[in-house]
């Protein structure tokens, strides 16, 4: 019983969780979502550019895209965040002020754009080549055909993978705390960690973990739902029709003939 009591007091102290709950809701959750959504949006824009460069017929565009992708996919996320957050700190102070918040978003955007670029590239290449050939036969240029026909189909194919990438960004946003965020800019992990240090109890961190689960688990099921809808289509299959009705119709037609 002593072991269970110690575990309960260490990880599931209701009072410690109640004390940190307002900060997790008003500060941590808001900042985590802001960082994740901003990094995902910027990453999608950059990722599309990287994807189009990666499938370009010109080698001068393909090779820089390949190097960019290998670089930011190969480096650990925490190393990229520290290099950008500390390496551009002086420049950031002149533009954004003392807050390292924008640099954290930029670092996550660069990391996510490398992965999202590969996702977009795979989706675009999965589109049948006949689509592009048909567009060219209709007189469309390469750029217009890609913009209006090929790219939209490729993006639609990879929507589940994009949601998965957003889930990864939500979890990686916890690494931004290494840059030393201001009190009002702390994300879920940092709020929980600070409360755990002050209270000498790990319950605030457990509660922060529950918030991550609340955000990521529904998105995981959403990915499965979207993937299933794309595989089966939006229209429900029509119920089977008995062949007796067709036989009756044939008999009516035969009887009507002279």
Automatic annotation (TrEMBL):
This is Amino acid ABC transporter permease. It comes from Sinomonas terricola. Keywords: Amino-acid transport, Cell membrane, Membrane, Transmembrane, Transmembrane helix, Transport. Its main location: membrane. Belongs to the binding-protein-dependent transport system permease family. HisMQ subfamily. Pfam families: BPD_transp_1 (PF00528). It is a multi-pass membrane protein. The chain crosses the membrane at residues 33-55, 67-89, 101-120, 166-184, 204-226. Residues 29-223 form the ABC transmembrane type-1 domain. It is found in: Cell membrane. It comes from the Bacteria.
